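Margin note from the TA: students keep mixing up input and output lines. Inputs are the sequences; the output is the structure of the whole complex. Example:
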Amino acid sequence: MSETHERLTETREFGRTRMHITRVGLGTWAIGGGAWAYAWGPQDDSQSAEAIHRAAQRGINWIDTAPVYGTGHSENVVGNAVARLETRPHVFTKVSLIWDQGRRVRSSLKAESVRSEVAASRERLKVDKIDLCQIHWPEPEKEIEEGWRALADLKDAGEIAHIGVSNFSVAQMERLARIEPVETLQPPFSLIRPEVSKEILPYAQEHHIGVIAYSPMYSGLLSGTMTPERIRAMPGDDWRKRDPEFQEPRLSRNLALSEVLREIGKGHGASPGEVAIAWTLHHPAVTAAIVGGRSAHQVDGFVGAARLRLTQDDIQRIQSFQSEQPPLTA
Ligand SMILES: NC(=O)c1ccc[n+]([C@@H]2O[C@H](COP(=O)([O-])OP(=O)(O)OC[C@H]3O[C@@H](n4cnc5c(N)ncnc54)[C@H](OP(=O)(O)O)[C@@H]3O)[C@@H](O)[C@H]2O)c1
């Protein structure tokens, strides 16, 4: 890292948790590695460790992971890398997606399953207490209350400091709030997936629920480095190859949007990806964005988003581009 690289210092209060987190955090889905249902192709563990260390050097004070990312592998890589750091970042993980010996993934929020997931995460992450544990998906839906009660009990027992949810609707969060307040929410939020801004983000803001927005560059599609050739050359176990946003007719529109972001970024000395991330941070309900980084170089390439303030004119240019697009049927 060059000595001239600045560290992030600005933090925001993370909902009800009393944690103060930097406006970007490091996401570790892709560093779970290849050969499972939602893999991003192969990943070099030493590059992952460098990405985690670089994030810490740049002042990023939190990491998001999940047991299912690489079926335990991401948590192991995070646990090992964080153990070598002098100042430990907050580490957030999840429950609900479990797997069998053939790495086939399924959902469970049964109390017993939640308890054994948390025990396994504490071991992989090498911590007595998990900083934040989130229900990854509200599935099976009939088990969400059971899973939430189990998390609340683990919080009382001191195994988890804070509890939150991910991918939940307002109605589902209301069901949980009758049992124990929802401290945090992790929704998908990007220029390609802005839907949560209608109901879910206003609800979170009103109820003082901290929000960490995931996939702000739509998993690299808005980074400014994606091309049809790159997508064609992706390994067979990169889930993005199968995603409709990475295919026509949506791909051309998404890449055109990324060019609009490139133009806007020029005025700020920022990359298209940083503009995409800053757009999510512009929403008043959003505490911070979770950004995936597979190398130290990538971390250096997006960390500037935390400080980037888009102008009203920038926001208007993006909105004009979006509203000029004809509806897509496929
Ligand atoms: N709760 C949930 O259900 C859920 C779902 C999705 C994500 N998440 C969380 O949110 C995190 C972030 O989401 P995400 O990883 O899907 O998407 P993202 O942050 O929008 O994109 C990350 C990807 O963009 C590329 N990239 C990163 N920095 C770059 C740079 N400087 N220049 C060019 N390309 C760069 C990398 O992919 P390539 O180099 O391979 O292109 C990287 O893996 C995840 O890691 C995970 O922690 C949670």
